[in-house]
Amino acid sequence: MPTYDRETIESLIDGTLPWADARAIMSSFKDPGRFDTYVAILQDRVPWEDRILLPLALHLYIVQKPDGARVVKCDCGHEFGDYHANWKLSANVFVRDSDETLQEVYPPLMHSDPDWIVLREYYCPGCDTQLEVEAVPHGYPVIFDFQPDLETFYSEWLGREL
């Protein structure tokens, strides 16, 4: 089983690793220390001290606060609340629901029909980073992408207590 050093994982995160090397990493079994290396790199890149328990999405993490609370937090430090709740409900939302707004990101006639589908863009209230985009029918509920079982992930996948 191959192992990868911190520099290689940083290059993978940054998208600067040559495709052949990235493909080899994606195709092989994960080495036991890769998750810890990945989290350590992310932890070093954020301006706050709360412990990252799990990267949730690009720019989003589940972190543990000093009081033990586990919250969703953005790179900038904005907190969206308890990770059991859908963070999107605390985000700024822009809905593209017309030809005009859809053509800001798509060429004419290349976007969805705004009578059928809307794009909901979710932004961090702290730094305005776009965090997620959903293409959904009008009135569709906000999608809750992922609610991990942290205890099981740590105990059964990582082999240690959370």
Task: Provide a descriptive summary of the structure in words.
Helix content is 27%, strand content 25%. By secondary structure, the chain is an alpha+beta fold. It folds into two domains: 1-45, no CATH class; 46-158, no CATH class. A hairpin with a 6-residue loop joins strand 6 (117-123) and strand 7. Helix 1 packs across helix 3 (34-45). The radius of gyration is 19 Å and the shape is globular. The protein starts with 5 loop residues before the first helix and ends with a helix.
Quick summary:
The chain has 162 residues and is α+β, with helices and mostly antiparallel strands. The chain contains five helices and seven strands, in the order αααβββββαββα. α1 crosses α3.
Q: Which properties best describe this structure?
A:
5 helices, 3-stranded antiparallel beta sheet, 162 residues, 2 domains, 4-stranded antiparallel beta sheet, single chain, alpha+beta, 27% helix
Helix count?
5
Low-confidence stretches: none
Radius of gyration: 19 Å
Number of domains: 2
Order of helices and strands: HHHEEEEEHEEH
Oligomer: single chain
How many beta-strand runs?
Answer: 7
Biggest beta-sheet profile: 4 strands, antiparallel
